[in-house]
């Protein structure tokens, strides 16, 4: 996910006070634990994972997983039987940075952790095990999956440890846009398939349809709804500002490809105009008045009802709502995704490639009772057969083999995946891939078959009849066809700005947090202001950012960009 999550100042102060004591204590304990674990592993060496004594590992993930059903799902049961490992998972319900900061401050850690952008807090606390020697001795499948990308997981120029294994799909090919402006199929069909390229096009389509149909299924029509529930505001409110003005996803940063220099992205004059447009939408009565107070479940429920004409969001954020609409037979109320920009001078860069993003992933903490067993579990998850299980499920029930030995889904099996909102939770398919090394879409197994169920052909097969009809009227086969392709942009040698970590004592830490706190207040205030008050609010926002020392923060971050490019050896 994009962007760095917010860190509460109070928590960080507490973290600073407790860090030294916690780190020292944990260092002594981890030394003892590791010696015990080595002895345990010697005693069990030569046994398969399934023959070892059952063990339960705790896991904390910064991202929620609403489909998580422990090891009770069908896939979860097989994983437990094959490895003897159970995962007891815990997920962040609010701001994950708060939980991670408390872990770091207390010295009490889960066995596995996926901290996303806050891994630096854990590393600085001495909480993480260096995985490099474990991988070299016990991780042949891990090495096979990542190959040279393992080098990208090196923590820094001064620390060659690997603390986290990237959980992004390796060599992923992208056939879906991911981020954009969503518009109901019923809207574009009713209006004769107008061009949807700019915010003006998007606004006009919404306005015209809304005036024609102020109610849908007896409920008030909602022209445009946004989600600003905690960190999700970044995805639905602020990140679209850089997409709409020619930027790609570098989180809270806009990084100029030519100069390789960063700025806090909402300081750009272009983005000011994007937020001015949202202010205009609000003053025109076209923005859901609950956008800045509704919670995620309320937002998804509204969209699932079929009365929300447009959203600005990521596909993973609104995916459940689309499945629910499909399940209810409301194909015309599902949404298509369009490459909307502020005006025709900008090109939507959502498809720009960043190379393999390796730093955000899963790590083993010093509190893990058996790091060798833990790395062997991750190595098992990296096996080709395990990845097929996690993506395809159980042969004969979730997929079939044809006469030539090729895996495939029957029409009924494919429709079940697309229309049943409980499918992942019941089966465990797609649930565990986030917690270990995995290949992305487009990668073939040793038999030359796709490891995931997705191919360019199946992407199209998964569309509803209404989607295909809409795309045909736009002269496209897939939604990605509407977007500028990846080969229209250079590959970013720094990867993604949101994945560049810094230490807790970095000069960036405090001003970044202050800037985030200010943004979370001022952006909504600017959007909800009267039109003639917008500039006053936004000017105050810019002045406050300067008062937080963002110039120095940006200068420091620019050095981190250069360090990343040098570390990855991709400086052109």
Keywords:
alpha+beta; D-Maltodextrin-Binding Protein, domain 2; 2 domains; 4-stranded mixed β-sheet; 21 helices; 15 strands; disordered N terminus
CATH topology of the largest domain: D-Maltodextrin-Binding Protein, domain 2
Q: Give the termini separation.
A: 27 Å
Overall number of structural domains: 2
Overall radius of gyration: 24 Å
Structure at a glance:
With 572 residues, this protein is α+β, with helices and mostly antiparallel strands.
SSE layout:
Elements: H1 9-44, E1 55-61, H2 74-83, E2 85-91, H3 96-106, E3 112-114, H4 119-124, H5 132-138, H6 140-146, E4 165-166, E5 179-184, H7 185-190, H8 199-212, E6 215-216, E7 219-220, E8 222-225, H9 232-243, E9 253-255, E10 262-264, H10 269-283, H11 296-305, E11 308-314, H12 315-327, E12 335-338, E13 361-364, H13 371-382, H14 384-392, E14 400-401, E15 407-408, H15 411-419, H16 423-427, H17 456-461, H18 465-473, H19 509-528, H20 534-547, H21 550-568
Helix pairs in contact: 1-3, 6-13, 10-19, 11-12, 19-20
